[in-house]
Amino acid sequence: MLRNVETASSKSADLVLPVRADERSSANPDHAFPVPVTLVEELWRAAEAESCGLSVAEFGLVLSVVGEKVNHGLPAGAVPDAAARAAFYRSLHIEELALAHGCALGRDAAWEVFVSRHRSSLQHAAVSITGSATLGQELADSLYAELYGLRQTEGERRSPLASYSGRGSLAGWLRTTLVQRWRDHHRRTHRETTLDDVECAASPSSPVPAGLDQLAVAVARTLRSLDGEDRFLLSAYYLDRQTLLQIGRTLRVHEATISRRLKRLADELRKQLIANLISMGLSKAAAEEALGADPRDIEINLRRLLQTSQTSTFSNRKAQTEAPDPA
């Protein structure tokens, strides 16, 4: 049982979402999560968790367990307030978090997405780590079987994906897991050999400075190509922590429309970033791996890039939104 579980208060903004018995996660079946229901629903929609087979309650429980596990990103002993918890949840890779935990729970829809997005890159990464096509294939297949939960503990299917926290990219987490499995294999088969030759220099947890420099340039170039309204959406949601409802009111559109636009914009940004990295000399595989870097390692002023050169179209629209109603 997790400690310091908040209870529901009489304020509607503080209501917590109950977990039905048939919707509890295997991660902690007795835990009732203290995440405000409005925030859970917002992030559930933004993550498109339903397409991964996750209910609102299941996704809320995942968020709660992750937050509790790492104290919402704060030092041990610190007590996070509601704002700190909300900021932590919004900082996560929520779409990948939903995908990983949908897979961990054995949802077929999630596995279809996982295979299409990660199976090929998992194999390429394994070959790169082992330096052998045969060993790489064996390593990738072994990890894939483990992720799928083919191995059972005490008669229950278990998947390492249940431990993914969403604090870094899922691609980076997968590669780090591959590296660890390869080191474990090396220890078992080469007990008298040091691990100096099994360091796997391309580990995503410590990307080389040159790669970060290229990523920073690619990010700046990509963001400068956006129009003003797209910049406003990114700035309002990711930097100013506005809710989908708040942004929707500003633009006079439904919050579901904002959610879809943010998703589409994120997909387009990823494609443009990869294209820019490739134009700078990286292979497609290297470009995709670079996107797994921790954003905190990239020296770039995102706020300045997102809040300059607003287009006249958005300025006019905003002016209309702020105009007083006729008497």
Could you explain the architecture of this structure?
- About 30% of the residues are buried.
- A two-stranded antiparallel ribbon has the order 1-2.
- It is built from 14 helices and two strands.
- The protein has three domains: about 10-100; about 110-200; about 210-315, no CATH class.
- The longest helix is centred in the C-terminal third of the chain and has 25 residues, at about 255-280.
- The protein is mostly helical.
- Helices cover about 55% and strands about 0% of the residues.
- The chain has helices at about 35-45, 55-70, 80-90, 95-105, 110-130, 135-150, 170-190, 210-225, 230-240, 245-250, 255-280, 285-290, 300-305, 310-320, and strands at about 150-155, 155.
- A hairpin with a 2-residue loop joins strand 1 (about 150-155) and strand 2 (about 155).
Annotate the secondary structure layout.
Blueprint: H1 37-46, H2 56-69, H3 82-91, H4 94-104, H5 108-130, H6 133-148, E1 152-153, E2 156-157, H7 170-189, H8 209-224, H9 228-239, H10 244-251, H11 255-279, H12 284-290, H13 302-306, H14 312-322
Antiparallel strand pairs: 1-2
Helix pairs in contact: 1-2, 4-5, 5-6, 5-7, 8-11, 10-11
